[in-house]
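User: Can you help me understand a structure? I only have the sequence.
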Amino acid sequence: MKAGGDTKVLSLKDGKTFWLWLGLWLVCALPAAAQYTAVKTNMLYDAAAIPNLGLETKIAHSTTLEIWGTYDPITFPGRRGWKNWMIQPEIRKWGCVPFSGPFIGINALYGVFNLEKVPFGGLEKKRAQGSFYGAGLSVGYHKILSPHWGLETSVSLGYVHIGYDRYRCGTCGYKERTFHRNYVGPTRVSASLVYIIR
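Assistant: Let's start by predicting it. Here is the structure, written out as tokens:
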């Protein structure tokens, strides 16, 4: 979809890459070791109306691979929007057995965003469109609630490079400037509800 000039706004089509990765992960992971696979959602993102989903599977005795992502194509009233998709794969090393107790991890991330009329970053009346990538380390803890259910908390710290174009308004194609930013700090905070497939 065009937003004036030659600029694009994030559309459902742009999220196909995210869903393709997620679908491929599901197809490969579940038949291989269904009893060692977990599906999860970050309740903090759910509360902020950001759809998200994570899949995690055991790949060694005390090691798992998680692929987690978000996809938010929603535009709010007044053309305010926080459209984005992101994917964040992570390798986790557990203290004893997967899906129980403490873990540490190493992750990477990549995403695309289109922000319009958001109350930060000088974008109250403007639009920003760009992408980001980075990597980080995480620590967390999984509490077993029942044979199938659990709660997981984690925090990730790392580096992210952000590049984006800023536009004068959401519907016009006048590009004001291109920005590049480097960020070091939290890259994800989660309080996830987990369902373990056995």
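Now, to help you interpret it: The helical segments are 16-33, 43-47. The first helix runs from residue 16 to 33. Let me know which part you'd like to focus on.
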